């Protein structure tokens, strides 16, 4: 049991889906997992464990922004020995080729976060996804014939930024903006675990198009299926490695 997650030992699976919205966590558990059980509701940050195609999977809300996300990711990896975390969230589209409802699998994450500056000082650390998890998610998307894009995201410290640099980042190939991925990738590197962000474009900074709060909470099925299928493949890969 940790400070912010009220789960007994063994209640959390080695693989965790990690939405920001705790109500999306509940929707994922009720919609996609078999025999899902609630293991956490401290501060309303819901967490569930169930199975998907016979593989134990947990889903845990993280809250918004890197500071909140980092609390839960740290405790999941440090206190509950979670081996892989897949963020399933939303992002704002920045590049003209990205459309609302597109799914972006984040290979890298740029950031303006003070958290990484505090950790690395003058060094510009480059947070990146785990390659095996990225590869398995791409393969899952293609097997399910689900459209996707692979590219970089920008993890911003501020949602309402009076001096946005999103256009500059888009000019350098960054596809979308959200608030958690860079911190997640950094923590996964610290603990030697696997992490990936799979984000649906919920609105677009260039066109002004957006989805409703209800849609963001209870739809966007494609990214959930990609993530869960990747977990199944990762579990099979782990079994093969253990048998060698």
From the structure above, extract its key features.
244 residues; 26% strand; globular; glycosyltransferase; DeoD-type; purine-nucleoside phosphorylase activity
Range of helix content? 25-40%
By secondary-structure content and strand pairing, the structural class works out as alpha/beta
| Overall pLDDT confidence | 93
Q: How many alpha or pi helices?
A: 8
Q: Work out the number of β strands.
A: 9
The termini sit apart by 33 Å
Please give the radius of gyration in angstroms. Answer: 17 Å
The largest beta-sheet arranges its strands as 5-8-7-6-9
What does this 3D model show about the protein?
The structure is a single chain. This protein has 244 residues and is α/β, with parallel strands linked by helices. It is 37% helix and 26% strand. The chain has eight helices and nine strands. A five-stranded mixed beta barrel has the order 5-8-7-6-9, surrounded by four helices. Helix 5 links the parallel strand 7 and strand 8. Helix 2 packs parallel to helix 6 and helix 4 packs across helix 8. The longest helix is centred in the last third of the chain and has 23 residues. It is globular. The two termini are 33 Å apart. The mean pLDDT is 93.
